[in-house]
Structure formats: C-alpha cells, structure tokens
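Quick note —
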Amino acid sequence: MIEILKAERAEDLKDAKRPYLTALERKVKDDGVSDLWFTALWEEQIHWLAFKCDFTNLTLSYGDPLSMSGTPHIIIKKTLWWLQGRLNKLFRAKGNALTCGAQDDGISCGFIAINTLAHNTLGDDIWTASLKIHDRLHWFNLVCTEYERDVSCLPME
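Predicted structure written out below.
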C-alpha cells in the first residue's frame, strides 16, 4: 500500500519498478485471486482503515470504524489508479461497505482494521469496545512472545 500511496499521478504506478506490487500483480493475474484485503493508514486523519479489492465484481470497499470521519478519497483514488493502470481493470468504489466494529475512542482503529480483515476472511467475531483491554493485552503478549523467541537465540555472556 505504501508504494501505491507514494504515487503522485496515475502514470507513476504504470512502471514495473515496484517489486512488491509486481509480485502481487503476478499473483492476482496468475492465481485467479478473487479478493485482496489490506489495511491502510489514512494520513490526513491519522486513522487506520480496512480495504477489500473484489476482483470478481470489480469493486473497492473499505471499512471505517468511525464512519463519520469522512471519505479517504486519496487512498481510494490511488488504489483505483493501480488497479486500472497495472491490472487493466476498471473498478468501482463502493465506499464504506465492509462490516467492522464501531470505534468509541481515538486509538483503537488499528485493532479494528485488523479485526475487520479477520472477521470478513476468517470468521472471527466482530470487534466490540468491550474487547479493547483484552485486545491490547493479547497483542502485547504476542509481541513479547515473538521478542522473547528472537532474543532467546542470542548468546548470553
């Protein structure tokens, strides 16, 4: 997503000098991927959102847990540039159409964006405000476990 958002104009996304996007494009074209889910930071609002590119219906949707924060026009525009310019497909923006939890604070959007992907792709329960503390502890424990795994292989002196 960062590579897409760096584009200043549609033509910037037509070159093949972006290794991650090139690999992703190949996977979409060769493997018949039906959906592409991703999160994106809406920098103007300092707010995380979940997105879905539906390659069957040629639509781009997003889920905004604050839903009153406006429309992430720049993310939509640049993602559509990429879809049309590199994949030669004309997509339609559906707007805030993904099922996602409702945010009641100014800091949970990242958790909710990831949960939106997990809910819609893996069937996880939808995020609720009552899960805030649990989620923070859960992710903290996951990060600590990975950190411990990484540093445990370092030689002790």
